[in-house]
Design a protein that fits this description.
Chain lengths: 286, 286
């Protein structure tokens, strides 16, 4: 990252920004983050992202000391300081401590940072990517998987495992052998002309884009289903796509080496992707 | 922590030591640590700790850029700079990056730190602690649980959960409902006069003190067993203790609110604890 990052109220050069060694985010992976996308200077679904972060913070006893307004302002400052309108944004919060120790905390001392980097406008027609379903029980326990925490190593390793298998992205499985999500995205597929995505009970992040896609699908009477999904079912689907806040809806054209449908991005993806772009345009006042 | 910490070759005041915001240890909990204990100026089982860290680094594709000698020197420097002979030590390693991104790395740029703090000499007769077995699937996936990584939140939350139940420490369960380990220790118990500890296949950290206690038990013909253990079996045991490098062997006298045996530290714990103290004294030249 070139440029400036936001760090506890200041804007500092990215290559000089640092967090305390005695930060529980570093020592124990205790902290939360959000990744968001700005289009034309506005952060899409900002309130949903901040609400998720604050809700997770409350559940995980992270008294991060700032509210939604301060976090929104930190992100706006970061965009402005870097002169960015279309950007990737990452917001990170964690608590500091005075000494190592699994229960050691320094009340009132937090680390809040925001990082922005330029991104090209979304491609009109994305080429499909390949995914690999990895071994059983690669997903974190369900109680943690629903928060976007700094203890992210399971997802990092899943992605590395997929790359080692020649795939672009991994699909993680829970201990019951059910698909949960990709390393940095949720997963949707079409089977028997129904749109399906793993249910939150399977142990996965309640993605913001996932929620929006479900809403857009319902508005179009696509009647999406949230339920448990096995790899064998996914491998036989007619369409598949991933969702996250940075890429939006990304078509998957190969699963475990086999082609999905006719090997090209499908019609359901195309229709929902267009609806998602319109939702972004509407939110950006476009 | 007062005093000085080691950070990438320098000794710096603890309250001013900082790591890059763009460190994968902070952004993604990707990194490793070891906690060790120094007795009389010597770090007990140092080689075993460093070998575990370097072995995990190789498995997790963490090219940390330093070897065992440099890490040992960092720890020795930290002890010396703080004038400590009996101390807690934490060594942490992670890799830096140039931008956020699950696959983003800055080759050749690492963060190596060592923190020391004074600890009293071990108590001759520890009072027992209480533990709580928590809900199913609180343990991370087995493939990650055997490494001591910076993605430590599952253990932090387990400890917090135990505290909320009025217990001192948590016992985590894997997805099969088997006991794996405590939040910062391994667990041993005695049942039908046999010493038992969960096997590594259950998904747990191969603790250094755990390994030493198993060796000491075999030397005394205690014939310890490593196997899967259910909470109901543990709740009916005659003795229980935890092991880690900081406390050594710590007796457990209450499990889920019920007394263990007669509610006092038991004979097997006492014998092995004494043997462990002798091993420390021998290693320290005492």
């Amino acid at each position: 990252v070139k440029g400036l990052v936001y760090l506890n109220g200041d804007l500092v050069p990215a290559d000089r920004a640092c967090v305390p060694l005695l930060d529980r985010g570093y020592l124990y992976g205790e902290g939360l983050f959000e990744t968001m996308r700005a289009y034309g200077g506005r952060i899409f679904a900002l309130h949903r992202h901040l609400a998720r972060l604050l809700s997770s913070a409350a559940e995980l006893d992270l008294a991060i000391g700032v509210g939604e307004d301060e976090l929104a302002q930190a992100l706006a400052l970061t965009l402005e300081a870097n002169g960015l309108a279309d950007a990737y944004l990452r917001l990170t919060v964690s608590q500091q401590c005075d000494a190592p120790g699994v229960e050691s905390r320094a009340p009132g001392r937090f680390t809040v940072s925001a990082i922005a980097r330029p991104l090209p406008a979304p491609a009109a027609d994305l080429a499909g990517i390949s995914v690999a379903t990895l071994g059983a029980a690669t997903a974190p326990p369900a109680a943690l998987a629903r928060h976007k925490t700094l203890s992210f190593l399971a997802y990092v390793r899943a992605r590395a495992g997929a790359r080692a298998h020649g795939a672009d992205e991994a699909l993680l499985l829970n201990s019951a052998g059910e698909i949960t999500e990709a390393s940095t995205a949720n997963v949707f597929f079409v089977t028997d002309e129904r749109l399906v995505t793993p249910s939150l009970q399977c142990g996965l992040l309640p993605g913001i884009t996932r929620a929006i896609v479900l809403e857009l699908a319902r508005l179009r009477s696509l009647d999406p289903v949230e339920r448990a999904v096995r790899p064998s079912e996914l491998q036989a689907c007619s369409e598949c796509f991933l969702t996250n806040s940075i890429v939006g809806l990304e078509p998957v054209t190969r699963i475990d080496g086999g082609a999905v449908g006719d090997g090209k991005p499908g019609r359901v993806w195309s229709a929902l992707s267009e609806a998602y772009s319109r939702a972004i345009a509407a939110a950006s006042g476009g």
